[in-house]
Amino acid sequence: xxxxxxxxxxxxxxxxxxxxxxxxxxxxxxxxxxxxxxxxxxxxxxxxxxxxxxxxxxxxxxxxxxxxxxxxxxxxxxxxxxxxxxxxxxxxxxxxxxxxxxxxxxx
Length: 107
Prior knowledge:
By secondary structure, the chain is mainly α. Helix content is 90%, strand content 0%. The protein has three helices and no strands. The termini are far apart. The mean pLDDT is 88.
């Protein structure tokens, strides 16, 4: 009936899974074996606890400003897309900066 809804559910599951897998890969690369358990717990708290709270409050503020106050859904979705782009670029920069530092250590 509503293929867009099924596509959204699929995309959400894919993004959710890739987010947590990326976090685990980052931890495996950056944290010593002795500290991984503690860091995985901290990652869970940060993403499912504090991160979920801040995300909910932030999205409520964005929705109130863009949709309720100005009746502009395009501002709401554009803000989300822009924030997602900034986070993606930050992650890309962080991973490549680490690769460059590892190469410098090897040379």
